[in-house]
């Protein structure tokens, strides 16, 4: 099958390109590098079964020839990125999703939307099942991302119901691993880079807020299975192991042997207090569950950041 992956030069998009190529598919990667990097796909560009197109997907998407799958991953994903690029984030969630769905409809392709646990906002139901409608502040600073993704889900379901497009929606929970940008600003990359450099570990607020962290290989497996399944409704893919941000900091300090001190910065507005996926649906429908626990995933991730710190003097980025 020939698949289009938007956001192909990003963290998750590049891992998906690898997976689809490894499964024998032909991949067209599309990206405008707004938060991605050519290094993430440098190992693919010479392959005959991979083609890269540099394009802003908020503009009309033209692809010649057959397309069997569209995996729509383009969007800034780190809070620090979408707070800096609020309009692009709203446009990519709305206009891009419309374009990508239009292409899927025209080509008779199956479509998969990269949605997010952010659709649950600061949740009042814990853990979060797919049936929970969420608790999102539409006009707060994070609303540009959360509402763009909620719109994208609504648009995807409309194309499914009214145009009969085969669609899939994955609600991704905090995922980490090699190829995250060191200055991405998300908590795992920040803490690892800070620890490796001996810089202070930036805890926002008290660090009692929780997140559930998924290693990238587990996520890619869940997405691959979801794409192949016949489930059109949104599906959580994430690791239910839940940790406070302070616990994460302690784990990173321990694994890196760093003597970095903790420093406290203000908690960002509308920062969700808890987050944990209910993955009963993924277990039953996809036969999927995460295999990589947090400590093992961090161990697989640290060497990637270590070489960037040593080679390029990479630094973290805080709000
Ligand atoms: P990322 O920033 O590394 O990758 C996003 C990619 O999309 C980048 O390469 C960027 O350049 C590209 N992009 C953005 N706007 C574009 C546009 N208009 N045209 C073309 N390309 C564009 O982020 P990521 O972590 O790889 O996230 C990928 C997707 O997964 C996003 O849709 C994100 O919302 C979703 N997601 C990620 C996580 C996570 O924990 N990583 C969690 C939930 C959802
Ligand atoms: N966070 C932190 N220090 C950082 C970056 C993030 O304490 O340097 C916190 C942030 O406030 C949030 C959690 O870590 O509570 C996860 O943040 P991230 O940016 O990774 O993603 P989010 O889950 O908020 O989208």
Secondary-structure content class = alpha/beta
Low-confidence stretches: none
Binned, the helix content reads: 25-40%
Heteromolecules bound: nicotinamide-adenine-dinucleotide, uridine-5'-diphosphate
The run of helices and strands is EHEEEHHEHEEHEEEHEEHEHH
Number of strands: 13
List the strand order in the largest sheet.
Answer: 3-2-1-4-5-6-11
Alpha-carbon distance between the termini?
A: 42 Å
The shape is: globular
Task: Summarize the structure in words.
There is one protein chain. The chain is of the alpha/beta class. Helix content is 39%, strand content 17%. The protein has 9 helices and 13 strands. The protein has a 7-stranded parallel sheet with strand order 3-2-1-4-5-6-11, with helices on both faces. Strand 1, helix 1 (11-22) and strand 2 (26-31) form a beta-alpha-beta unit. The chain is globular, with a radius of gyration of 19 Å. The model has no long low-confidence stretch (mean pLDDT 97). Residues 78-79, 174, 186-187, 190, 202-204, 207, 209, 211, 245, 268, 271, 318 line the site of uridine-5'-diphosphate (UDP).
């Amino acid at each position: 099958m020939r698949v289009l992956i938007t956001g192909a030069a990003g963290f998750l998009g590049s891992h998906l390109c690898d997976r689809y190529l490894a499964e024998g598919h032909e991949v067209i990667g599309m990206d405008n590098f707004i938060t991605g990097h050519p290094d993430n796909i440098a190992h693919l560009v010479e392959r005959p079964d991979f083609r890269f197109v540099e394009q802003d997907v908020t503009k009309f998407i033209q692809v010649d020839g057959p397309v069997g799958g569209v995996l729509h991953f383009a969007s800034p994903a780190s809070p620090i990125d979408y707070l800096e690029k609020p309009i692009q984030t709203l446009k990519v969630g709305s206009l891009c999703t419309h374009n990508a769905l239009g292409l899927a409809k025209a080509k008779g392709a199956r479509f998969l939307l990269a949605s997010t646990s952010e659709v649950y906002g600061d949740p009042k139901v814990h853990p979060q099942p797919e049936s929970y409608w969420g608790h999102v502040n539409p006009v707060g600073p994070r609303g540009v991302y959360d509402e763009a993704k909620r719109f994208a889900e609504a648009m995807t379901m409309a194309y499914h119901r009214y145009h009969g497009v085969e669609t899939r929606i994955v609600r991704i929970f905090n995922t980490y691993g090699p190829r995250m940008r060191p200055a991405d600003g998300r908590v795992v990359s920040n803490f690892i880079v800070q620890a490796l450099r001996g810089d202070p570990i930036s805890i926002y607020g008290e660090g009692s807020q929780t997140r559930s962290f998924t290693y990238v290989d587990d996520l890619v497996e869940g997405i691959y299975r979801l794409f192949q399944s016949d489930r059109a409704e949104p599906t959580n893919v994430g690791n239910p192991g839940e940790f406070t941000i302070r616990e994460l900091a302690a784990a990173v300090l321990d694994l890196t042997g760093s003597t970095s001190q903790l420093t406290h910065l203000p908690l960002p507005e509308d920062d969700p207090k808890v987050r944990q996926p209910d993955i009963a649906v993924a277990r039953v429908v996809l036969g999927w569950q995460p295999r990589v626990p947090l400590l093992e995933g961090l161990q697989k991730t640290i060497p990637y950041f270590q070489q960037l710190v040593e080679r390029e003097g990479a630094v973290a980025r805080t709000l």
